[in-house]
Design goal:
single chain; alpha/beta; Zincin-like; 11 helices; 9% strand; globular; disordered N terminus; Peptidase MA superfamily
Length: 222
């Protein structure tokens, strides 16, 4: 599917074109759907660990995205990246910048891909705050959550985190502000813990795929 009309996308959507033809953008096939501009053994190691974290949360991994890794900012810009550390392209691929080539960011982006793969056409019904908060939780990002095992993983009082549920994610994160990730992670981790852990997320996915409305499936305490 991605191989059709690559030339037409190359200017307007370089991320899609690079996903379809990584070699066209200077990335070499490193095996196992990994493409990079440098043959570093640690890339395979970090992806194996990211896969382990996804599997630990979901029980198995159903998505099979291509992974594009750049060791230079120039390479990352060429494939359509910006100032972010990484980016998921729907459920097709994930891109990692030089600063994002680590286990935490790889798992975060792979969480988006896995979540969208499982949701299918219901992906559009999930608000960004939940998608991003879930990715922080699955990646166990110590920047935004207390260590696993803590009774409450929030780094801010829950009441301070709640407004993110009603905020516009694009506005909240404008200019590269990352505090919304901390707030979303707090709300999602609290909801997940209160509803049975990862099983609650799997049940929510099943209900959303069946046509349920997100607010009815994910009801956060106010």
């Amino acid at each position: 599917m991605l191989g059709v009309g690559v030339g037409a996308f190359a200017w307007a959507l370089p991320t899609v074109a690079a996903t379809a033809c990584p070699q066209c953008y200077g990335l070499s096939d490193r095996g196992g759907r990994l493409y990079a501009d440098s043959d570093e053994a640690r890339y395979r190691q970090l992806l194996d660990e990211a896969d382990r974290r996804i599997t630990a949360f979901y029980g198995e991994r159903t998505s099979t995205p291509r992974v594009l890794i750049c060791t230079t900012a120039e390479c990352y810009r060429r494939i359509g990246g910006g100032g972010e550390k990484g980016r998921a392209i729907r459920n097709w691929s994930l891109m990692l910048s030089p600063a994002g080539a680590n286990v935490t960011i790889a798992t975060h982006e792979l969480s988006h891909v896995e979540f969208h793969e499982r949701l299918g056409s219901a992906s559009g019904s999930v608000p960004d705050w939940f998608d991003e908060g879930l990715a922080v939780l699955v990646s166990d990002d110590a920047r935004y959550l207390k260590p696993a095992g803590e009774p409450d993983r929030c780094l801010v009082p829950y009441e301070q985190a709640l407004p993110i549920v009603d905020a516009d994610w694009g506005d909240a994160t404008h200019g590269g502000v990352d505090r919304p990730y901390l707030l979303a992670a707090c709300v999602v981790s609290r909801w997940t813990a209160a509803n049975g852990g990862s099983a609650a997320v799997l049940d929510a996915i099943a209900q959303l795929r069946a046509g349920a409305d997100f607010p009815a499936v994910v009801s956060v305490p106010r």
